[in-house]
Amino acid sequence: MASRGAEDFINLPFQEKLEFLYGLPARQKLDLILSAPEAERLVQSFSPETLFYTLKEIGSADAGDLLSLAIPEQIQGLVDLDCWRKDRPDLDRMREWLESMAEGGRRRLADALVQLDLELVTLLVRQYAKVYRLDEAQAVLDVPSRQMMQFDEHYVIEFIRHDNILPLIQDFIEEVFERDYDYYSSLMEEIYWGVEAELEEEAFKYRRARLNDRGFPDYFDAQDVFAYLDPTRFEEIRRAHSAPAREELLREDEVMSVDQALIAPGADNSLFNTALTAGFAAQGMREVRTEMALVTNQVLVARSIDFGDPEAVTVAVELTHDYLNLALEHLAGGDLQMAIDHLRDTHLKLLFRLGVSLTIDLRKRAEEVMRTLGYSSGRNPEISYLDSPYREALAGFLETLPRFFGGLDRAGSMMKRDFREMRDLHVSYGAINRIEAMRSLFQRLFDVDIAKPGFRVQMAGREIRLSQILLTALVNHALHGRLTMEPLVAGDLRQIRERLTTTDEVAAGLSESFRSDIEEVLSSRLDEELRMRSSDFLESCLNLLEDEFSNLPRGTDVDPRFIGTVLVRRPSPV
Q1: What are phi and psi of 63, to 5 degrees?
Q2: Among 20, 73, 70, which residue's Cα sits nearest to residue 40?
Q3: Pairing of strands 84-85, 88-89
Q4: Which terminal Cβ of the chain has fewer Cβ within 10 Å, N or C?
Q5: 322 - beta bridge partners?
Q6: % residues pLDDT > 70 (the chain)
Q7: Same domain, 237 and 348
Q8: DSSP 3-state helix, strand, coil percentages of the chain (rounded to 5)?
Q9: Are both 65 and 31 inside the same structural domain?
Q10: Based on the domain organization, do 276 and 409 belong to the same domain?
Q11: What pLDDT score was predicted for residue 140?
Q12: Nearest to 341 by CA among 266, 421, 275
């Protein structure tokens, strides 16, 4: 089916044409629609949001062909989604769409504008026109330099802004005067009498009511999509809700939602996508996608995301998928059938909240560790003495909506992202446990409490990491028999390369004698439980030392300026 060209597409029945267009790239969708004899019917069958995101992908400059086929209700949906900034109309974007709509001709343009709220049209036209009542305008009419327009004995219009949109505004005013004088007179009165703030408030109220009726909640109501629920009580919470009846969501005349093409199962093999594909027929998949779109709507509103920013909307869609997948993995583990059952029997908003709550529990655990390290739970500073990736990871866990640091994965990026799967949580809890163990490790080895204000003061502004302190002490013990954190002298650097690493030029590493010395120190000072909790951190520190020193040339002095794994005392100036 996907390989069919325009000729094959034209020969499809109408319903199959619609299904074939679903999920196609916008440009391909545009070409196929315009090649079909029933192009107008196809466009008018789109939900407002599907048309909107298709047009956004194409770009307003090339959107005229599709817009000329749209019905006024679709234009209303487009304006509701794209021509507002929070509670303020974005008239610049309205002008951009006006240019595209003008390609359909004066009548089509007037049809679209008349469908919009009169208050919003008034705000737009006011940028171009000032209205006078005829008796008040007599003095104005005597000034020939002004551009005036008069259609009846009641109003005179002065045009105050001159750009490429002005002719469209003039055509619109003339068209509505000819076809609907009541509308024309109402527009004139609003331009003459209306207070801008009141016009904006009324237009926003009407827009908010429409979006609310069709799947976009109020900003404050939308916040509950991120509300915490206790994961240990999830089954109890779910039983308190009736089973989802998703077939009711398919009445597109009542539900406006983010374009469902954006929430089609992706190429990745997440448990959510796998369960959706394996456990539901076409109708059931469409029902789940519709419900997912409604959850995404709440995410968009709750996070104040611009509906007209396709990239930001895509990020919100991915966030919705990720939390749903996280919740399914938590409930079902690796059992596909159990995941299908949960997906069938659970409202997606509940699943989303479960996914969010699992990360909030992680944040609570991170805040607890912060308190053990002497930091207030009310503030989330970056702990400068922690090594990467622990420093960045902990900062991500402490965000209001916790994020996963890619550096925790061996081949991961150095960017933060949303949590996607239970493995992310397991890795994150492991990182938190290792951070917590560092305090006990330093107390046992050096009798130093890293949670004390004095230690933090010493570390402030010095860019010293715990790994550097630990490795410096271990190297001091191997070279001089003292487990001390005192910085090494520059001459010690050559000894580290010569005595503490192997001579293998191809696969050099830390020597067995050095590792034995470390094992002796750890065995004498740490109990088995702390050894286990600290092992990953200790091994990562040794890997850093090995990577740096085993690759240095033998038989030559080491320049201390290029050494970062141990602390080196600066030589005294001559």
Answers
A1: -90, -5
A2: 70
A3: antiparallel
A4: C
A5: none
A6: 91
A7: yes
A8: 65, 5, 30
A9: no
A10: yes
A11: 56
A12: 275
DSSP state of 386: S
448-453 long-range CB contacts below 8 Å, 24 or more apart?
448/485, 450/373, 450/385, 451/372, 451/373, 451/374, 452/374, 453/374
| Residue ranges making up the domain that contains 538 | 465-562
Query: Which string of b and e fits 215-244 if b means at least 16 CB within 10 Å?
Result: bbbeeeebeebbeeeebeebeeebeeeeeb
The answer to whether residues 261 and 331 belong to one domain is: yes
Q: How confident is the model at residue 260 (pLDDT cuts 50, 70, 90)?
A: low
Q: What's the residue count for the chain? A: 574
Chain-centroid distance of CA 163 in Å reads 37
CA separation for the pair 50, 260 (Å, rounded): 7
325 and 301 assigned to the same domain: yes
In contact, 510 and 542? CB cutoff 8 Å? yes
Query: Binning pLDDT at 50, 70 and 90, where does residue 262 land?
Result: low
Residue 484: other Cβ atoms inside 10 A: 12
Q: What is the pTM of this model?
A: 0.83
Q: Is residue 236 very low, low, confident or very high in pLDDT (cuts 50, 70, 90)?
A: very high
User: Last residue of a domain, which of 213, 235, 262?
Assistant: 213
**Given 359, 387, 417, which residue is the final one in a domain?**
417
**Per-residue tokens: 554:** 């033998």
* Long-range CB contacts (within 8 A, 24+) of 135-144: none
Over residues 294-318, the pLDDT tens digits come to: 999 999 999 989 888 888 988 999 9
| Residues whose CB is less than 8 angstroms from the CB of residue 481 and which lie 6 or more positions away in sequence, other chains included | none
Kindly state the average pLDDT of the residues 457-475. 92
- CB-CB contact of 196 with 280 (8 Å): no
Contacts of 266 (CB under 8 A, 6+ apart): 273, 321
Query: Domain check: are 306 and 346 in the same one?
Result: yes
